[in-house]
UniProtKB/TrEMBL annotation:
<keyword id="KW-0378">Hydrolase</keyword>
<dbReference type="GO" id="GO:0102127">
    <property type="term" value="F:8-oxoguanine deaminase activity"/>
</dbReference>
<dbReference type="InterPro" id="IPR006680">
    <property type="entry name" value="Amidohydro-rel"/>
</dbReference>
<dbReference type="InterPro" id="IPR011059">
    <property type="entry name" value="Metal-dep_hydrolase_composite"/>
</dbReference>
<dbReference type="InterPro" id="IPR032466">
    <property type="entry name" value="Metal_Hydrolase"/>
</dbReference>
<dbReference type="InterPro" id="IPR050287">
    <property type="entry name" value="MTA/SAH_deaminase"/>
</dbReference>
<dbReference type="Pfam" id="PF01979">
    <property type="entry name" value="Amidohydro_1"/>
</dbReference>
<protein>
    <submittedName>
        <fullName>8-oxoguanine deaminase</fullName>
        <ecNumber>3.5.4.32</ecNumber>
    </submittedName>
</protein>
<feature type="domain" description="Amidohydrolase-related">
    <location>
        <begin position="72"/>
        <end position="434"/>
    </location>
</feature>
<comment type="similarity">
    <text>Belongs to the metallo-dependent hydrolases superfamily. ATZ/TRZ family.</text>
</comment>
Length: 472
């Protein structure tokens, strides 16, 4: 199945209890409507003010209308950090209770056995999970390519799912024998990494407005690649106009490693390598210091905030309020499924709000701010001005949540805040690139059951092989 095969009909979404626009005025429109034509939004306003031309198109059968009474409608959420292959290694007993470096060391043994099919199936399942949680655009950071796996495997999965996708070409080049963390069998040569990066940009990168596929260069972290590869990746990215992404300042050990190996804080190291600017975003930044926050604000360097992962690995509480006050672009990331075993992006917005309050008091983040970070914030972090808001000319990425169930009972006073304060729901409707992907809480043209069955088999195979390598 290729979701891009036929052009979509214009869609008229109307009678939303509340339409959250995230436009410049942050309008919330009661009994709202939004109309899409092709890949873009054509009209936004109150249902009563819908231009007659749309009623005429409906009467001629040239458009489709969906009534959304009882729903909140909003821009599709944007996920800025993930490792989708990890949906095969959730809740692995050996990695349940470790902090970052110990956790990684245990999991590398499994990941070294990934196959191209495992990448394709796990990426599709991870995308299905994200889409059901209201996400319409995601980045994915794939940084190991064992047994013939390629980034193309995850891009083809995104095509099959119809999801807007920023594929980050990760890499690791410093194995254990050279003082790095990963085992030698999962690292690549730096020449091969750069050659493959160029190939991927040539084959897949689309810089145009409403693009469904973009390539990002993303060495895994400062403790798994060389200084040279960080520099050369930045040069290549700027020559070709693609973004840069990596992990930075995740926890105290990460800071200690940076000081010991490079004699600098992670932010100083990033600046030294040319890894700051509007075309760069870093995951985590839990331990970004005041000078680092000022640097990121000054240069427009983005941060992918991953609160569930930070809690699961006991990394700490990222200073999101200080970052935003300094002008740092902040988006949300669910992070890989092995460090956040539940990848629900609206749930992540809820956790972001709650965790900021634990760290910095009850006024540290409002529900609306959490939603803004999850939409506009993520768009800015990915370097896009065509997603994250509902306004004419923006990409047609729209989600709706039904607030009539038990999880939102009694919260009608403020349905928008209820999206974040109450139990994170399943997206009732998801439109991506003007196409209905989820309708009534189910995929419109995809049977998940066989895909889930295969995913279960692959997860079992991967785990058993790593535990009993002599059997494989
Ligand atoms: Zn990560």
């Amino acid at each position: 199945m290729n979701a891009a095969a036929t052009p979509p009909r214009p869609l008229i979404l109307r009678h939303a209890d509340m339409l959250v626009t995230m436009d410049a005025a942050r309008r919330e429109i009661p009994d709202g409507a939004v109309v899409t034509e092709g890949p873009a939004i054509a009209w936004v306003g109150a249902t009563a003010e819908l231009p007659p031309v749309y009623a005429e198109a409906l009467a001629r059968g040239q458009a489709e209308a969906i009534d959304l009474r009882g729903h909140v409608v909003m821009p599709g959420l944007v996920n800025t950090h993930h490792h989708m292959y990890q949906s095969l290694t959730r809740a692995v007993p050996e990695a349940q209770d470790a902090e970052l470096f110990g956790w990684l060391t245990n999991l590398y043994l499994l990941w070294a056995r990934l196959t191209p099919e495992m990448i394709r199936v796990s990426t599709r399942i991870a995308m299905a999970e994200l889409m059901l949680s209201g996400c319409t655009t995601s980045s994915d950071h794939l940084y190991l390519f064992p047994n013939g796996a390629r980034l193309d495997d995850s891009i083809e999965a995104a095509d099959a799912m119809g999801m807007r996708f920023h594929a980050a070409r990760g890499s690791m080049s410093v194995g254990r024998s050279l003082g790095g963390l990963p085992p030698d069998e999962v690292v690549e040569s730096e020449d091969a990494i750069l050659r493959d990066s160029e190939r991927l940009i040539d084959r897949w990168h689309d810089p145009s407005r409403h693009a469904m596929r973009r390539i990002v260069l993303a060495p895994c972290s400062p403790f798994s690649v060389s200084r040279d590869l960080m520099r050369l990746s930045a040069e290549l990215a700027r020559e070709r106009g693609v973004s840069l992404h990596t992990h930075l300042a995740e926890n105290d050990n990460d800071i200690a490693y940076s000081r010991e190996k490079f004699g600098m804080t992670p932010a100083e190291y990033a600046e030294d390598l040319g890894w700051v600017g509007r075309d760069v975003w870093h995951a985590h930044c839990v331990k970004l210091d005041a000078a680092g926050i000022a640097l990121f604000g000054r240069t427009g360097t983005g941060v992918a905030h991953c609160p569930c992962s930070n809690m699961r690995l006991a990394s700490g509480i990222a200073p999101i309020g200080a970052m935003r006050r300094a002008g740092v672009p902040v988006g949300l990331g669910v992070d890989g499924s092995a460090s956040n075993d539940g990848a629900h992006l609206l749930g992540e917005a809820r956790q972001a709000m709650l965790l900021q309050r634990v760290g910095f008091g009850p006024a540290a983040m409002t529900a609306r701010e959490a939603l803004e970070i999850a939409t506009l914030g993520g768009a800015r972090v990915l370097g896009r001005d065509d997603i994250g808001a509902l306004a004419p000319g923006m990409s047609a990425d729209i989600v709706a949540f039904d607030l009539r169930g038990v999880g939102h009972a009694g919260a009608g006073h403020d349905p928008v805040a209820a999206l974040v304060f109450c139990q994170p729901g399943v997206a009732a409707l998801s439109v991506i690139d003007g196409r209905v992907r989820i309708r009534d809480g189910r995929f419109a043209d995809l049977d998940l059951a066989p895909l889930l069955a295969r995913h279960r088999e692959l997860a079992r195979t991967l785990y058993e092989q790593a535990r009993h390598p002599h059997l494989s």
